[in-house]
Amino acid sequence: MKKVILGVTGGIAAYKSAEVARLFVRGGADVHVVMTPAATEFIAPLTFQTLTGHPVYRGMYADWTSDKIRHIDLLDNADVLLVAPATANTIAKMVSGIADNLLTTLYLAARCPVVIVPSMNINMYNHSAVQDNIRKLIAHGCHVMDPDDGELACGVYGRGRMPEPQDIYAFTRAAIRPKDFSGLKTLVSAGPTREHLDPVRFLSNPSTGLMGYALARALSERGAAVTLISGHTHLNTPPGVQKIAVTTTEEMYNAVFENYEQCRLVIKAAAVSDYRPLKIAEQKVKKNNDLSTIELAKNRDILFELGKQKGDRLLVGFAAETEDAVENAHDKLLSKNLDLIVVNNLKEPGAGFAVATNRVSIIDRSGEIEQLPLMEKEQLAHHILDRIAQLL
Ligand code: CTP
User: Among 169, 279, 311, 336, which lies 20 to 30 A Cα-Cα from 55?
Assistant: First the structure.
């Protein structure tokens, strides 16, 4: 997202909009803030000017020059018009086509996606006039974000609170993504599997599920129907994603095959235990048992089995390697009958388990290697999907 027009209206939540602006700036966007006259009663334009590095637009006419009409000029190349907070008053004006300040005028002239974040007292929010107007905004094609439940500025507890800046940021980015996976049934596996030795101990690995969850979120944002089969993680299920929680490799195997039939795309980002203890003790193993060896049995390779029944599906695997990464990964791609494999060398800084970044190479069936720089897993997820979209 390159250019964001952030409209701020006169609600108490306007103070949170400063953080929204900051998140977009940190994400690399050029942010231009437009405030209604009432908004300037709640927060000083100087705050936004300092955070965005641009003057704040307020008046309809003050910024006009002989060759530019400000409200049209401001919308040039805009990726999104985001109004947060949006008061009942501004929403009503937008719905009625009233253009009595710069923000409401911009709304009528905007051809980019529009995201509205209503925020107000619960009784105002529940009033049928406001609810009717919100429905009309949606009919206009706006993306409207639901307010949060919580303690409102007026002291009442209920729905109407502006969502947290991080959530507004994520909602806006999701709203303007191209829906190039629309209607596609997909399956993503993520996180580690665990193989218990006894009720309190298990064999596992340090996977946190970040990469798989980023892929599930990215797929959902781009319109896919996503089933996420996940080992233990502390991550929240991304919006719109159907999650199935599993513990062992065998449980993951069963969950994958129960959902494989309808899927057109499978991405296996899970870090799967290849072995399990031959016997699981029913009670905690005590230290005076003098246990010195654990007998292991091999788990089934889920991806290998999927590859045998591939049909017209696309299969994408991950490979975690510590040496000869590219050669090993390409061998895995061929032996498991995959279309793409994403390989990370666990010894490289910033790559692998439990970090927000990754440095990977993507290899296709022909052996062509795309080496990517270190990037955030969220960004990487979209890059992987871009590659998959070319194959679909
Ligand atoms: N995988 C799987 N089932 C297994 C093991 C791995 O589905 N029992 C999948 C992983 O989810 C990943 C890919 O296979 O997409 C490669 O996993 P990796 O652990 O790198 O390789 P392995 O096949 O287990 O081989 P090795 O441990 O010898 O490197």
Answer: 169
